[in-house]
Specification:
Elements (H helix, E strand, L loop, with lengths): L3 E9 H10 L12 E2 L5 E2 L5 H16 L3 E8 L2 E9 L4
Antiparallel strand pairs: 1-5, 2-3, 4-5
Amino acid sequence: MGRWTYDISRHSLDEIVRMMRDRGYDAGGGSQVLFCDTQGRCFFDEASDPYEMTIKDILNARGRDGWELVQITFREKEFICFWKRSGEGD
C-alpha cells in the first residue's frame, strides 16, 4: 500500500501582488481580488488574467516538485492549499 506525505501552504494577497510585480505584471493599484460573502464563501471570479496567471504559477511550482493539489480554500485576502505526494520508501 502506498504512503502519502501531506503539506499545507498559505498564500496571501500580498504574496500574489509581490509575485505579479516580480514578473512585470501590473498589480492594479490595490483593487480587491478575492471576494467573500457573509457566509464565508470566497471566490475570485472578477480577478484579472495576471492574478490568475500568478496563482497558476504558485500551484504549478508545487506540482513540479511532485505535489498534488488535494484542495484549495479561499479566505479573505488569502488562499490555503492542501497537498499530497507519494511518501518515501514506496
